[in-house]
Amino acid sequence: MPRIIAGRLRGRTLRVPASGTRPTSDRVREALFSAIDARVDLDGAAVLDLFAGSGALGLEAVSRGADTAWFVEEGAKAVA
Questions:
Q1: CATH code (residue 51)
Q2: 0.85 surpassed by pTM
């Protein structure tokens, strides 16, 4: 079960469909946000999560200080 790995929402689990959605692993999200944090201050940012799937990346950004996250996903099962 995917979860938020850092920030104010840390530890919250994300519900995802049993099949068809492959959430980004904790290790990859940690590496991605480590690189982002080194270059950009997320506080107050607006984030666009394209091909969002579970929404883990956008929700992780909000947990780490982004004010807004926009999610774009065409898969009906992922959005439901």
A1: 3.40.50.150
A2: yes
